[in-house]
Design a protein that fits this description.
151 residues; mainly beta; OB fold (Dihydrolipoamide Acetyltransferase, E2P); 2 domains; four-stranded antiparallel sheet; 12 strands; 9% helix
Length: 151
């Protein structure tokens, strides 16, 4: 993979509005993550290359304000980019609802990424205070999914 191919990938990332792109060709792998004004690419067969790419405004999902009004609230964030599903099957009951008491390991939702269904589990015992995403919505890495009040 050469510099011009990497620049084309950067442009594809900017044009599509996605937050992350990873491409592998043989032993070469490039991962481009939108966020800052500098993107770093590591090619295993060459020296690391840093390319300055414009940080275009990505369409962002509405984010919940940080829970600063009440001390001790925790947020559950998406660990990956994908599509949020609040039910195990279409038309089924939600994994959790606002007011539900949860324990560590309880499945809160599914985030589908590249046809893989990733279960997002609660890491603390507590009560669901807020649900920030509707089923079927795309989520970015770090998007707030739930707010939990630990017990």
């Amino acid at each position: 993979m050469n510099i011009s191919e990497i620049k084309e990938l950067i442009q594809a990332l900017l044009d599509s509005g996605v937050a992350e792109l990873e491409v592998q060709r043989g032993e070469n792998r490039v991962r481009i993550v939108r966020g800052g004004s500098v993107q770093e690419f590591v090619l295993p067969t060459a020296h690391p290359v840093t390319i300055h790419a414009p940080a275009a405004a990505a369409p962002m999902l509405p984010q919940a304000a940080p829970a600063t009004s009440e001390e001790g609230l925790l947020t559950v964030k998406s660990p990956i980019v994908g599509t949020y599903y609040g039910t195990p099957s279409p038309g089924g009951p939600d994994f959790v609802s606002v007011g539900d008491v949860v324990k560590p390991g309880k499945v809160l939702c599914i985030v589908e990424s590249m046809k893989l269904m990733n279960e997002i589990e609660c890491e603390v015992a507590g009560t669901i205070v807020a649900k920030h995403v509707e089923s079927g919505q795309p989520v970015e890495y770090g998007s707030t999914l739930f707010t939990v009040r630990p017990n």
